[in-house]
Design a protein that fits this description.
Largest sheet: none
Distance between the termini: 67 Å
Number of helices: 10
CATH superfamily of the largest domain: Hypothetical protein af1432
CATH topology of the largest domain: Hypothetical protein af1432
Radius of gyration: 20 Å
Structural class: mainly alpha
Shape: globular
Length: about 220
């Protein structure tokens, strides 16, 4: 089923308004909390990447592309606006955006689907009754895929200087363990999402294992 169309706006116009809404939340938080500037800027960049992953997965999974894009734009709205970092941020975010979605003219079923995707993207649970939808699965998968991006990995590892090489490798080993654990435990739900997720894991593991191997070569006394 497609989105119930507002007589006043096209899908592109609605999506643009959602993007502006989300960016304003981020900009407002930046103004109020400059100490969190780097974190908030990263969160907005993450949001934009999740939108792109979500759009691609939605097409492959025959999901409603507009619903997915809107939900991806808003999936971390609680973090953009209030720096909420716990597992509840999806459910908090869904409550935040529901009135706004009604203002845009979305039909009730579409509002519920978008809010469900936002509320459940972290752990698959919403605080209201709603059937599982392919759109919610796509949003959750897109979020997980970007959480294993090369850029995020480099942020986690941090900068390296020669005097801290050993400490850097400790971080690398922890990141490798996290990636390997994610490959076994993270619940990616769509067929296309699983394919991209495996690619992310594989690329990350190969790179991290190479970093460790290079370090171990520096410790070798064999000639």
């Amino acid at each position: 089923m497609g989105i119930s169309r507002s007589k006043m706006m096209t899908a592109e116009e609605r999506i643009e308004k959602v993007a502006i809404f989300a960016k304003k939340k981020c900009d407002l938080a930046l103004g109020e909390s400059p100490d969190y500037a780097a974190r908030l800027k990263y969160r907005w960049q993450h949001t934009l990447r999740v939108v792109q992953y979500g759009k691609k997965l939605a097409v492959k999974e025959n999901a409603n592309v507009e619903v997915v894009i809107v939900a991806c734009l808003l999936h971390d709205i609680a973090k953009l606006g209030d720096r909420s970092r716990n597992v509840e941020h999806g459910r908090i975010g869904a409550k935040m955006v529901r009135p706004f979605l009604h203002q845009l003219g979305y039909a009730e079923k579409d509002v519920e689907n978008i809010c469900y995707a936002i509320a459940s993207h972290v752990d698959g649970k919403a605080d209201f009754e709603h059937p599982l939808t392919i759109e919610a699965q796509v949003v959750s998968d897109a979020d997980k895929i970007d959480r294993l991006s090369s850029y995020r990995m480099m942020l986690a590892l941090g900068k390296i200087v020669d005097s801290e090489y050993e400490n850097f490798i400790v971080k690398v080993k922890k990141r490798l363990s996290k990636s390997q654990k994610a490959s076994k435990e993270w619940r990616v739900q769509t067929k296309s999402g699983k394919e991209v997720f495996r690619q992310q894991i594989s690329a990350q593991v190969v790179f991290l294992e190479r970093l460790i191997a290079d370090y171990e070569m520096t410790l070798s006394l064999e000639f």
